[in-house]
Amino acid sequence: MNIPYYLEMYSRKTPESTFLKTETSEYTFREMNDQANRLASSLARLGIKKGDKVILLLKNGYEFAVSYFAVLKLGAVVIPTNVKLTANEVKVIFDDSGAKAIIVEEERKEDVNDFGDCIYICAGEGNKTCLSLDELIAQGQQVPFESQFTEDDISTILYTSGTTGKPKGVVFQNRSILSVAQMICIEMKMTEFSKTLLMMPLSHSAPLHLFFISTLMVGATAVTRKEFHPLEMLKAIETEKITHFFGAPVAYLLAAKILEQQKFDLSSMEWFVYG
Question: CA separation (Å) from 222 to 15, 28, 91, 106, 144?
Fold first, then answer.
């Protein structure tokens, strides 16, 4: 069992159900799986293979999701990285991990493109040093990538904040991620009708492993926002009929101040989680 297995399964079981909904677009399980396959084929053509490390310097949304699944379909290792890190801080992670590729936000393509021997890919338009993510998806072959790696294989490395020193990579096998995600599904009663709001950065373990992957496991819908804002959080809950939300304590403090002056319909919510 591995993480992309669930995307592949739901692309056959409930292909037209919405898996991902961003600020401007939505994607079914079939669409997400097809586009992840296309990107995986392009990455394979560029030389990415099982065990290679790929840094994702991307905000929450479509680009993160499709890159995440494409890398994992190849048996490569994803390194989700906070988009607010400086180029020097990203370089520390690059050097320590030995990453073979970096996929970055369009606005970061000019300051994260000279780390040495590496494949540079950016959201939006490419340039002489950075390949376009959109073009790689469009040019990719529509061939199924049925993931063959196992629960014991490494899927993810997350770097610590480095408060008392340089960041250190924490290694996750498929088994450990799927185990905690399954726990969330059971304890927080997630079903295919659930809607999870993801506003905390997916470069952190809780939003990524506990809530994004648990949403995938039950065939539910993930609603993403590129950044957190308490007003946008309340608006999203009301308009999207969100059932599950994870946030840092300050997210609730800020939202509570807004609720003192403005009303929102939060009746769809089943679980507010903090950590």
Answer: 15, 11, 31, 23, 23
Tell me the average pLDDT across 235-245.
Answer: 98
The radius of gyration of the chain from alpha carbons, rounded to an integer in Å, stands at 18
Of 3.30.450.40, 3.40.50.980, 3.40.50.20, 3.30.70.2740, the CATH number of 28-173 is 3.40.50.980
Supply the pTM of this predicted model. 0.96
Inter-residue long-range contacts of 231-240, CB under 8 Å, 24+ positions, other chains counted: 231/258, 232/199, 233/197, 233/199, 234/258, 234/259, 234/262, 234/264, 234/266, 235/264, 236/197, 236/199, 237/197, 237/264, 237/266, 237/268, 237/269, 238/264, 238/265, 238/266, 240/21, 240/195, 240/197
* pLDDT tens digits along 188-222: 999 999 999 999 999 999 999 999 999 999 999 99
Q: Are 75 and 51 in contact (CB under 8 A)?
A: yes
Q: Which two tokens stand for residue 101?
A: 């590729």
In the sheet with 101-104, reading across from the earlier edge strand, the strands are 131-132, 119-122, 101-104, 53-57, 77-80, 154-159, 169-173
Give the pLDDT score at 162: 67
For 9-18, what is each residue's pLDDT tens digit? Answer: 999 999 999 9
DSSP string, 126-138: --SSSEEHHHHHH
Question: Higher-confidence residue: 94 or 275?
Answer: 94
CA–CA distance, 236 with 225 (Å, rounded to integer)? 9
Average pLDDT over residues 40-48: 96
